[in-house]
Write a structure and sequence with these properties.
Distance between the termini: 73 Å
Number of strands: 5
Number of helices: 3
Shape: elongated
Radius of gyration: 32 Å
Strand order of the largest sheet: 2-1-5-4-3
Order of helices and strands: EEEEEHHH
Largest sheet: 5 strands, antiparallel
Helix content: 10-25%
Structural class: alpha+beta
Length: about 120
């Protein structure tokens, strides 16, 4: 298990042996370590928990949703030359005979389907 202190952002692989739990509520556990420093430790989520939470809605700024691109890969990618789009003249489309629009009730539509 990996833990992160909410006060000083330090990560711990495990809770040290000399730590005394002062307070516990929900996911937050406050410990006093042997050297007298107080840490508010929270367990870090796993990658599977992350995938479950952000599966449908990736969060901007999340390092697991959007991992940083290594500089080596960005240097190896070839530059794509810009493509030139040719301008075409619009073609005139013949207009069909205008149809008179008539309002139709639901009953008229139902009876027309029966015919």
């Amino acid at each position: 298990m990996t833990y992160r202190c909410q006060i000083c952002e330090t990560e711990f692989d495990s809770i040290p042996r000399g730590a005394v739990e002062l307070y516990s509520r929900g996911q937050s556990h406050v410990f006093r370590f042997a050297d007298g420093i107080v840490h508010d430790l929270r367990r870090l989520g796993s990658h599977t928990a992350h995938a479950r939470w952000h599966k449908t809605n990736p969060r901007p700024g999340c390092e697991l949703c959007f991992p940083p691109v290594p500089e080596i890969l960005s240097e190896l990618q070839p530059e794509i030359p810009p493509t030139v789009v040719e301008q075409t003249e619009p073609v005139a489309v013949p207009v069909a005979a205008e149809v008179e629009l008539v309002s139709m009730t639901a009953m008229e539509a139902a009876f027309r389907r029966l015919k």
